Amino acid sequence: MGKEKGKSLSAFAVCALSNEKLNRPVVSDYRGQLFNKDAFLEFLLNKEYLKNDKLSHLTSLKDVVELKIKLDQNTLKCELTSAEYDITSATVPKFVYLVPCGCVMSKKALLSLLSSTKVGEYTKARCPICNTEYCSRDVIEIDPDEEELFALERRMKTLETEGLHHSLKARKKRKSVSGEKSAKRSKNKSSKP
Ligand SMILES: [Zn+2]
């Protein structure tokens, strides 16, 4: 549980792939890690995911979402509240982003908008910044704590069973080597009890 304070600061300051200063365009994976897009593209190009178990979930651009993040030098702005935070100080609150649109905002500000309605795991809502529809499941904490990460891992497992990437784009279906014989099976009769 107890994650040291200050950990979240580096999440906004440093690209988790290259350790260079985080600069837009920024992309993020399902675990809420932030990467410089150019570092991520290089990572894909060099197939680095084959060399690092912790990054083996990153094999395609569909495994990340490009963030609409208001990050300018050391200042992070929440577009929802217009509050600005110095990422080198200890005052940065928890931020989240939405999939698929990638809008970034403080978690508290987002939750305050939702508090009047009952939120289930699959509640649909509209992004308060760009109006794109999203599902409450697809709110991703940036630099999550243990509990949040657990929920994010669970979300990813569900997406995999649904044939989706983190970005909600469809996974490529594996080509069937033995042709399409399974497609022409006789129709199931509906079994009524
Ligand atoms: Zn949005």
UniProtKB/TrEMBL annotation:
Query: In what ranges is there compositional bias, type Basic residues?
Result: 166-176, 184-193
What's one GO-annotated cellular component? Answer: nucleus
Q: What are the boundaries of the region Disordered?
A: 162-193
Family annotation (InterPro entries)? Rtf2
Kindly state a single biological-process term from the GO annotations of this entry: DNA replication termination
Q: Which Pfam families match?
A: Rtf2
Could you identify this protein by its name? Replication termination factor 2
Q: Which organism is it from?
A: Ogataea haglerorum
